[in-house]
Amino acid sequence: MAQYFELHPENPQPRLLRQAVAILVGGGVVAVPTDSSYAIACHLDDKAAADRLRQIRRVDEKYHLTLLCRDLSDVANYARVDNKQYRLLKSATPGPFTFILEATREVPRRVSHPQRKTIGLRVPDHKVLQELLALHGAPLLATTLIGPSESEPLNDPDEIRQRFQKVLDAVIGAGPCPDQPTTVVDLTPMGTGGDAVLVRQGRGELALLGL
Fold first, then answer.
1. Domain membership of residue 12 as a residue range
2. What is the CATH number of the domain that holds 18?
3. Number of domains observed in the structure of the chain
4. Which residue has the higher pLDDT, 150 or 12?
């Protein structure tokens, strides 16, 4: 049964955040609010939790999972970023963008794309999630929460609690989130002189990326 934490969206209670972090560190899978929609997240280095994450979303190992990072210093640890890519990242973070980049050795092989050796990263602009990431002290492995056989992401914590309470360990409720997924941009072509490629148009403004 999922534990439910109701947090203020602008002034989240540290005590409740610490309890949620303890669940993540202990191998839990937690629904978290973001600046696009709700996501489910777990500890990066926990294989069992990552496997559960994929099972809940019903996706295989070829599906790109995302690292939720607090800031660009985290991004540099887990992805290879040149100066041109960094400038683009800086112009659009924090915000509702997911960037596909070449993964470094810090990323476990099981969570990077098995053929391309890439990883999705993003720096969300959401107070509760930012505070959670700060207390956790490291990025979280995540994916947008979309129900089985559905195409739209979930944005209501009460609905998430009702529908997923048997498979999640906790739900962090901070009010409704936007009902759009992130804009996904592949930056790997820039590493060989190419241009960024739009993979999915979502909530992020393309003008921030010059696209």
1. 3-79+105-176
2. 3.90.870.10
3. 1
4. 12
